[in-house]
Amino acid sequence: MEKKLSLKLTGIICSLIVALVLVGYSTLLPVPACAGPIKLSYANFPPAPTFPCVQMERWKKEVEKRTGGKVKIDTYPGGTLLKAKAMMDGVIAGTADIGNLCMAYQPGRFIATNATALPIGFPNATVGSLVLWDLYKKYNPKAFGKVKVLTMFTTAPSNIMSKIPIRNLDDIKGVPLRASGGAAQILKAWGANQVGMPMPETPEALQKGVVKGLFSSLEVMMDFKFAELCKYVTVTNTVIYPFAVVMNEAKWNSLPKDVQKVMDDLSTEQAKWTGNYMDDHVKDSVAWSKKAQNVEVISLPKKEMAKWNKLLEPITDKWIKGSEAKGIPGKKIVKDLKKWNKKYSKKYGD
Ligand code: DTR
Description:
The chain is α/β, with parallel strands linked by helices.
């Protein structure tokens, strides 16, 4: 009986101690509002070693560092969370908090910003990226109205990579070559048989012979090992492809102000960093393709190049007409693109 009573008393005392400790903790000690860092998912469509994913890892590292560990970003390269064409809608729906998209894969959706894929003559990705970011900031296109845009950037100018040598307009006639968006019209103007598909599908199409080459920036010769199949590069140095990094709007609005500031402060810097990385990487890729893969780089004679360029002249006018008809100030945009191209080329042109 005595033993039972003392056991009961011990129980009560223990409960009291636990309760006191808990009260003490909740009133005297600061309790963090949420346990652990803010977690964000970041989806990307191409494989990890390619430039869109390299820039993603750089952004992740910088944000985690600059927020002092307050934010933790989980990255998903290779289309593991969202694939190329599903990126924008997937971010709007919240499947991923952040996503990186190539605007050329949905050309009718990103009309204003896809103007950077017109044959304007951007010399490199650094200039292209800074111009694109200025374009976005000035025109704030409706296409991005449902997301927070974190940054934008472009590829370096596109060139033809092919299994067969292309040295003149006769050589390119009817050749199945892969390109998307603005670049597609350019291939058509030159007489190629343009085949559209996102970049991650290209290795298989090349392997199976569905296409005989592609039209893109040359870092892919190394990153996708296209140099093993495409032994020829025809230098055209045209059209850049625009990319955007977007965040789910509700997620953005839920972030503390200091975290938002870190991300906003990074936007221009990240555009320039990515352009720079791309430009350097293209040089490495071309050197490797020539040396390790015996790729022939074909420069078109001036007279031949003039013929190719002449065929591109109607494209910009056609785009202006089409965009104006949709209520987008195409004429003003093209004027700005040319102006900004000059401005940044003075500083960063090759
Ligand atoms: N030129 C575009 C975009 C692009 C260029 N390099 C890469 C690497 C990985 C994904 C996309 C791209 C294209 O041809 O799709």
